[in-house]
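Researcher: Quick one. four chains, 438 residues in total.
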Amino acid sequence: MLGSLIGDPARANMLTALMSGKALTASELAAEAGVTLQTASSHLSKLESAALIFRRKQGRHNYFALAGDEVGSVLEAMMGLAAKHGLTRTRTGPKDPALRKARVCYDHLAGELGVRMFDSLRARDFLAGPDDRLVLTDAGTTFISEFGVDPEQLKSPRRPLCKPCLDWSARRTHLAGILGAAMLQRVYELGWAARLTDTRIIEFSSTGERNFLNQFTTA
Amino acid sequence: MLGSLIGDPARANMLTALMSGKALTASELAAEAGVTLQTASSHLSKLESAALIFRRKQGRHNYFALAGDEVGSVLEAMMGLAAKHGLTRTRTGPKDPALRKARVCYDHLAGELGVRMFDSLRARDFLAGPDDRLVLTDAGTTFISEFGVDPEQLKSPRRPLCKPCLDWSARRTHLAGILGAAMLQRVYELGWAARLTDTRIIEFSSTGERNFLNQFTTA
DNA sequence: CGGATGCTTCGATTATGATCGAAGTATGAA
DNA sequence: TTCATACTTCGATCATAATCGAAGCATCCG
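Model:
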């Protein structure tokens, strides 16, 4: 059944990664999904059997890609509806504590710290409006400016400024959109954290984490 | 997660029944799904929490319906893909012959007649390009103008003009996008067909259907 | 050739969620 | 008012499938 195939978070994350249009190896997809290679292999076999993806073997590398535009289109429609309705994933996210704590989701911060940031911005009225129409308040604009994010660089006709993104591990919302991406970039610039190579883990230094928690207080 | 919500067979069967556009009671939906009333109730609660359906209580009866045309559209796309890939456990498309023939998919024509329109436009080179980049040809622009659709009103920065949409019942493509919606509106204006109240069925008069088949010939 | 890397397959573990019996509440009808 | 019907909620049961360690196969590279 298509729904249950896509409904598994690990498979959903792999399909999401493949929606970029790039062909990825099993190892890369395992990292995207935050599962072991054997688990990923098992999932990929199911997706392939369902003709949602196809594989191309190059030596010892297996490259996987979405089977066609129709697949991508349906996935996109589903994600759009899911995003609009703020649907909760049933899995609680990856086992790896580091991934649970802070990781890359597309291009913004996810995990407990990602949720923390969102909650903080919400609690302090830096973000306002219902989840499907989040806006940055004047106070919020001031806040991010002082944090080092230039509001002027956030304008884009094609991508929302603020967008809630349902966090896989925390079952709550973290901040996506242009602002989410810019905030993560700023965290990198400040040297508070860095992305571990070939994973989605974002590793904070102890000082960086302390600074982050202070900056994005929920008290 | 949307996928897993829809992926459960009982829920899938209930959603399928609701795609007719009619509101059904919990008891009716339990029968559709082949589960007890208490199980159905539990499932319906989940679907309602996910805003995929809404309920209307009339005395002791609870009527459930899909939350909107958008939900129906996504479900239809999923089912179309599932059917095409042989992933479905149930019959392809609705059992109601009227729904199979012509129904609303979001805001455009689906079903056999919807596929017929698309095939016709394709066969006569009114639409060109690969499916992910469909464009209206000059001949096509002339054709739709003569049909009574104003090309100037079709411009939108936010929505594609032509877009293929996988048809649930026919396992083939029907036309979505602005043009698809405009064409359906025109069919209504011409009095060839009308949407049945409280359903997604589009009912053609015999004259209307004859005219439609002539207009969108595949010969 | 031997060791490293990429990946598949097997099998045991366990978290998850569908399921239904039981019980309770709300509404309708006689 | 009593009984029937529609539906919700609770909780125990258990089937399912995701998960990863272990092992094996295929390919690459020094």
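The radius of gyration of chain B is 18 Å.
Researcher: Thanks, that's what I needed.
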